[in-house]
Design brief:
Blueprint (H helix, E strand, L loop, with lengths): L1 H29 L3 E3 L5 E4 L1 H7 L3 H4 L4 H16 L1
Antiparallel strand pairs: 1-2
Length: 81
């Protein structure tokens, strides 16, 4: 009885995980995704982010998001002037 309850819970957890992975994959294919560490440094970006921001991941990883946003803002201002 105890074993069958654990098996059922384990199966439910696997189904939940599969569902969450499908949501993540869907978001990753449609959106710009950026992951930061607790200090605000870029840990990962998806291909959409690289394409839209015109940066390669190797140019971004380990850099501060604040630094990137200031640089992007300055570029936007200078391009519009």
């Amino acid at each position: 009885m105890f074993n069958s309850k654990l098996k059922k819970e384990n199966q439910q957890l696997r189904e939940d995980l599969m569902s969450m992975e499908q949501v993540k994959d869907s978001l990753d294919s449609e959106m710009l995704v950026l992951q930061l560490d607790p200090q605000g440094r870029i840990e990962s970006v998806n291909a959409n982010f690289e394409r839209e921001m015109v940066y390669r991941a190797d140019q971004l990883l380990g850099r501060s998001l604040k630094r990137l946003s200031r640089r992007t803002s300055r570029n936007s201002i200078s391009m519009s002037a």
